[in-house]
Specification:
This is YtxH domain-containing protein. It comes from Leifsonia kafniensis. This protein is mainly α. It has helices spanning 2-22, 25-60, 77-85, 87-117, 123-127. It has one domain (2-114). The protein contains five helices and no strands. It is elongated and about 70 Å long.
Length: 128
Amino acid sequence: MKNFIWLVVGVAAGFVVAHEVNKTQQGKQFFSDLDAKAREFGEAMSDGYRQREAELRAALGDGDAPTASSSVPFSGPSSFAKATTNADSAVDIEAEDAAFDAAAADSAADSAAASADGSTGDAAADAK
């Protein structure tokens, strides 16, 4: 409990110091630079995620998957709400869920078959 109190005191002190620093011209410049760098980092992470997702979808043969260049950048909760209410998105999600469920069922069936015949399901391990 004592450590938690010190954590809360430290966070509160950090907020007070940041507020005081932000009152100066140099502090405002520092925080605006920090904000710009954080946004740039977030955008880079988002772009990398979209590119990797497009690569994985292409590898799986999902031809109607959006590409990284055609995706809409995230602009907050309103764009999320629009995307989740889109009927096409709902169909895509349902199709992905069905594909996942089918893959899970296949995996469970393979595991059950391997258990029944005493194999591990791993050809290399079974060969030993």
